[in-house]
Amino acid sequence: MTVSAPGSRTEIEEGAAFTPRFDAQGLIACIAVDAGDGRVLMMAHMNAESLALTLKTGQAWYWSRSRGELWHKGATSGQVQTVVSMRVDCDQDTLLITVNVGGDGGCCHTGRRDCFYRTVSVDPRTGLASLETAR
Amino acid sequence: MTVSAPGSRTEIEEGAAFTPRFDAQGLIACIAVDAGDGRVLMMAHMNAESLALTLKTGQAWYWSRSRGELWHKGATSGQVQTVVSMRVDCDQDTLLITVNVGGDGGCCHTGRRDCFYRTVSVDPRTGLASLETAR
Predict the structure, then answer these.
(1) Per-residue confidence at B2, pLDDT binned at 50, 70, 90?
(2) Is B113 among the domain residues?
(3) Among A45, A67, B99, B125, whose CB has the most other CB atoms within 10 angstroms?
(4) Predicted local distance difference test score (pLDDT) of residue A7
(5) Does A27 reside within a domain?
(6) Does the distance separating the beta carbons of A39 and B110 come in below 8 Å?
(7) What residues of A are in contact with residue B108 (Cβ under 8 Å)?
(8) CATH code of the domain in which B121 resides
(9) How many structural domains compose chain A?
(10) Do residues A122 and B1 make contact, with C-beta atoms less than 8 angstroms apart?
(11) Does residue B2 sit within a domain?
(12) B33 with A41: CB under 8 angstroms?
């Protein structure tokens, strides 16, 4: 994969050149959505190498910030994410991939299908925010 | 809104305490999804103040990294995002809000309904990645 450096704002927003804007740590955020029902599964990060591997292999590769290493999603769990499409947002600092999930169809390391399994609620009297299981 | 500092990994992943993990810049990523059809609209960031305002007012407030200021989404465009639900992911470093969008129902500053209007494609012969209008 060959990508160019970001150009002007108009080029970034309206151009046909893919110029991902990695942050100071060399990472770009990537949202993974289930191609089947559109559910948001997870959000993780890619560096240039994992992005290139994702585009080359058609499977999602991330950069694990906690482990500090390339992360072939599903390599051990079988929950490989086969990329159906990859989109980029207006300012090219966020990716959105739609994926078909292998294995048991799950995504989260806690065993849930996706990572967003808790809802934030705020008690209007106390102002205290707490979490409830979303489903 | 009152939140606590993050605890152990088990508390973060399985507990009922909302302990958002802001990054070194004091920000947490927030994905906004249309409550009507589940489409991913945008990804932006919140700091503690904008998160508190979001929970207090029921409308999405972000932190604009480019402008370095609080950003009441839709304050000028009318595209206010009324929050239907807020979820947090397993390690509490990403938020997911479902929203009803005011005004013309759009979200992106370029005039599109959402920010992910271009698909990344790679020419298998040249390895060159380019963008196509997604829809």
Answers:
(1) low
(2) yes
(3) B99
(4) 80
(5) yes
(6) no
(7) 90
(8) 3.10.20.810
(9) 1
(10) yes
(11) no
(12) no
